[in-house]
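ok so for the tutorial part 2 we go from a plain amino acid sequence to predicted structure tokens. step 1 is just haveing the sequence, like this:
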Amino acid sequence: MLKRFSYYLLSVVFVAGMVACGGKSHDHLDHDHEHAEETEHHDQDSEEHDHDAKGAHTDEIILSPEKARAAGVKVEEVKPGVFHGVIHTSGKVMSASCDETTVVATISGRVQYKNHVSEGLKVAAGTTLFSITSAGMQLADGDPVQRSRIDYERAERDYTRAKILIKDKIISEKDLAVAKAEYEAAKLTYTSMKRTRSEGGVAVSAPRGGYVKQCLVNGGDYVEAGQPLAIITQNKHLYLRAEVSERHFGEVNKIRCAKFRTSYSNRLYDITDMGGHIQSYGRSAEVNNSYIPVIFEFNNTGDVVQGSYAEIYLITQDRHNVITLPLTALTEEQGIHFVYIQVDAEGYRKQEVTLGESDGERVEILTGVKQGDRVVTKGAMQVRLASASNAIPAHNHNH
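step 2 — the prediction. this is what the tokens look like for a chain of 399 residues:
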């Protein structure tokens, strides 16, 4: 009986101990769970704090001063100033009429090229360009050179006889003067043809030096005396013909000068810098189109090709208090234009802008920037690439 009671007492103590141990273990687990939840919440708060801290500079592009200098980045402070009205149009570069000379045929016959004449060839005054021959041809008046010789000999005989007859008062002084004039004209024609006569026919030379602008006949063609054979230009002066829409007719008389860029070059030419001026402008639109021609004359600097098409900026009256930037400050994305504003020594911000008129060098900014902003005018593409690549580390300095 005593033995059974002792065994029962030991069992109760054992169970009580197990219960006690189980309670402590549960409390400990609850404590650990609460601690884990607090840690997780703290970590989440930290992540949100870090995200907010980084988000404050998500629009800022970081480019160190050293990298900016290496990339050629330059900044300009925005200041309103004087600009001008601009009519943006197109046109063509042409040779000036005062610089052109037409070479004409001196006799009728078949024409042949001499000295490898071609367009663009530089020639000196007196250079033989063509020869014209009537050999083997059945011309109504015969060979021109032979005919001139016959006319000269006949005029010489008539003038000699007239000088004899005047002594006997058989003819008047007027008749003698007519005979003398006919003789001198025939002599001049024959002497000229004889001097230019060669084995291949009568030579036709350049009346003055310059460049062959255009050949108007082909070798072997039959030409009449006086027919144009070629055009020679000295290429010293050029015309710029701008085609202005008739809706700008009210502004045509306000045009002061022009800038233009040819189709083969990115260089912007200024008429004023080339000694140019406005030559004339139409008072009405042309018959076959609705454009008004505006003509400028300028000195050829040697690198403007006549006949080339051009993009033209016609400059009109001055305008004051206008914000402008160089075209190099602009970048474009899907038709929208942007600039980059420097916010501090190594921070830049991308800014959308609205454009106004442009003269090919600077452009009017209607919205997006204000006076005092520091805008990247050179190296904007490098700043854009730094933004797109995300190669620059996050901005950590305080403003």
